[in-house]
Amino acid sequence: MGIVATAKVQSLDTPWQGEIQHGKHVYLTDKPESFGGKDSGPAPYDFLVASLISCTMITLRMYAKHKDIDLGLFEVEAEFHANREGEEWIERRLNFKADMDEALKQKILAICQKTPVTKTLLRSVEIKTSLV
């Protein structure tokens, strides 16, 4: 497998702000006002949880299509937590409008643990940094 995703960020004159580009998609990143930013865009950990929940939603929809299951409209939300002891964790919640039996609920929970971004976050990822 080759490159899965690319992104570029250009720092802006306003402290903490940057312009992120993914192909034709362009948006701002910033820090919240409580951390000295202007809150003009998501902060880095916001992107991390957004990646997880968007991958979860897409994977569940792909599974449903493959199995011809109507999941209806649903929401996935996540929070990144950290404490003073250095522990970090993500809490992910799913909310389905459609009724489903217990077997399907358990299958959905199992699939969530196997989404590509979940699997990436659960294992160690090597990051190679260079100056160009």
UniProtKB/TrEMBL annotation:
InterPro entries: KH_dom-like_a/b (IPR015946), OsmC/Ohr_fam (IPR003718), OsmC/Ohrsf (IPR036102)
Pfam families recorded: OsmC
Signal peptide bounds: none
Protein known as: OsmC family peroxiredoxin
Lineage: Bacteria, Pseudomonadati, Pseudomonadota, Gammaproteobacteria, Moraxellales
